[in-house]
Amino acid sequence: MLLAIDTSAGTSVAVVDPASGRAVAERSTDDSRRHAEVIGPFLADVLAEAGITGTDVTGVVAGMGPGPFTGLRVGIAAARTFAAARSVPLLPLVSHDAIAADQAQDGPFVVLTDARRREVYWSAYDQTGTRVAGPGLAKPADLDEAIRASRADAVDWPRATTATVPAGRLGTLAADRLASGAPFADDTPLYLRDPDVTVPGAPKRVVR
Questions:
Q1: Displacement of CA 144 from its chain's centroid (Å)
Q2: Which of 63, 82, 129, 189 allows an S-S link to 6, with CB 3.0 to 4.6 Å?
C-alpha cells in the first residue's frame, strides 16, 4: 500500500492500492492554517479505514509543492518521518501534477493554487496532461506576463483554481510511475520564494 500526503494547499492524506491505482481511504480539508493539527488524525483515520497498519505501507508519496513554507513543510516532514520509521522509500511528486491529473476538462489548461501574500502558484499542462511550464509564482496582475515568459501560447489556456491537492490522485500518479519506471520529482520542497527569516547582520557599533 502507498501512503500519500500533501499539505501544499489544504491538507490531504490517502492510502492507495498500487495494484489497482485506487484510493481506498482519503481525508482532506481546504483549511490552509490547520495542517499541523489535522495531519496526525488524518493519518490514523486513513490507515484504520483501509484496514492496515504502518507495517503494510510500502512507500510514502510526498507532495513537494509548490506551497507556502509554513504549510508545505508539515506534510513533507510527516512523509519523511513515516518513510524513515518504516524503512520504505519516499516518493516525491510535484503537487500540481496531481491537480492536473484530477481535471475532467479536455485540452490544455493552467493550474492555480493560493500562495498567500496576494500571490498564486501556477503550472501549465498541455492536452496530454504533461506539465510544459512552471511551477511558477506570480501576483495575479502579473500572471499573464509570467506565463507568457515561459510558454507564450499558455496565456490563453483555461485556468483551474483549487484549494487542496487530492492525495488519492497523488498516490495514483506514484503507482503509475512505479509501474512504468518513470522518474519521480526531486526531494526538494518547492517554496518558490525566499523565507521571511534572514540572517542578522553584524551588530551595530555602540557609540557612547
A1: 23
A2: 63
